[in-house]
Design a protein that fits this description.
Blueprint lengths: L5 H20 L5 E6 L5 E9 L2 E9 L6 E8 L2 E9 L6 E9 L5 E9 L5 E8 L2
Antiparallel strand pairs: 1-2, 2-3, 3-6, 4-5, 4-7, 7-8
Length: about 130
């Protein structure tokens, strides 16, 4: 068997140590989606199992603090949240978290946010399958 160089060995050890931390940060059954908005902002939508229900996290990141957005969340086409959110320091983002019932079959979640000043729109969709 050939010799392994020291830098390669060190790299392998570092990756082996980091792998459990990366895997531990994601829960089994989570659904992640992300995308661009109609302007410079980005959205993220995360669906997670939560004691037989679904935790919904919808985030908009504009990198600008103090923007007001109207946010609406839908579950299988039915609106379950509406409200205003302001982007906050330090990241210039906001997140809305809600827990909804896990219906029979696939659960279709949609998040929509509109910047009240610029009319930029962020819209994300994800499907949670039990």
């Amino acid at each position: 068997m050939g010799r392994v160089s020291k830098p390669v060995l060190v790299g392998a050890v570092v990756l082996a140590l980091l792998a459990p931390a990366v895997a531990a940060s994601a829960k089994a059954g989570d659904v992640f989606r992300r995308g661009s908005c109609s302007g410079q902002s980005e959205w993220k939508l995360k669906l997670s199992p939560e004691n037989g229900k679904i935790e919904v996290e919808f985030e908009v990141d504009s990198n600008k603090v103090g923007q007001t957005w109207r946010v609406r969340l839908f579950h299988n086409g039915v609106q379950f949240f509406t409200g205003l959110r302001m982007t906050k320091a330090p990241s210039g983002s906001f997140t809305v978290r809600r827990v909804v019932d896990n219906k029979a079959g696939d659960d279709h979640i949609r998040g929509r946010a509109r910047n009240l000043k610029s009319d930029e729109v962020c819209e994300g969709r994800a499907t949670f399958t039990a």
